[in-house]
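step: validate -> pass
step: tokenize input -> pass
step: predict -> running
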Amino acid sequence: MKYSHIRQEAYEANMQLPKLGLVLFTFGNVSVADRSLGVFAIKPSGVPYNELSPKKMVIVDFDGKKAEGDLRPSSDTLTHAVLYKHWTGINSIVHTHSTYATAWAQAQRDIPIYGTTHADHNTVDIPCASPMSDVMIQGNYEYETGIQILNCFKERKLSYEEVEMILVGSHAPFTWGKTAEKAVYNSAVLEQVAKMAWLTEQINPGAPRLKDALIKKHFERKHGPDSYYGQSL
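step: predict -> pass
step: emit ->
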């Protein structure tokens, strides 16, 4: 019963992925952490979404070692563990192979900030980490994927608390957040922005990036100190 709350949260968040059209078959996973217990709950490896239940979620510590559960955790578990261990402000991680975001990852391109939908959520291009080196691939692959993400943010001087999404070059997207709801939301937003950017380039291959003034306006009206989007509590 000690882990029932994060098992339930992880189950509900994983079930959102097929509903939002972000996964096909078993192509993705969500994890939810309880930092006071030093563990996270994650989807079991290779289990179809329609066969999941809270009880089937696997409990893992921040070193990637299974703490409780009858099934093997997701093959991406070590990537989640690395991010939780180094980025202490996040409590949920989502990995999908959603079509448009993955296409940008396979193209090894950042997603340019073309419009205000993008600017509502980020003030920068969505980063695409460089493809992993052969040495990293031949090593502990899933662990190294986490390192690949950390290195990209370090090299680009990005904050994981401000930019809650990344494309892993030649692979697929990861998103995160302080809650499971926000992490899944970020995954859906990333897919939509990726689709819009692709369509923009089909219509106008020379489309300009969004003006700085519009980037600032749209981000700050939702997230700035004088934000006015939504309702006051």
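step: describe -> Residues 4-223 form a domain with the L-fuculose-1-phosphate Aldolase fold (CATH 3.40.225.10).
step: cleanup -> pass
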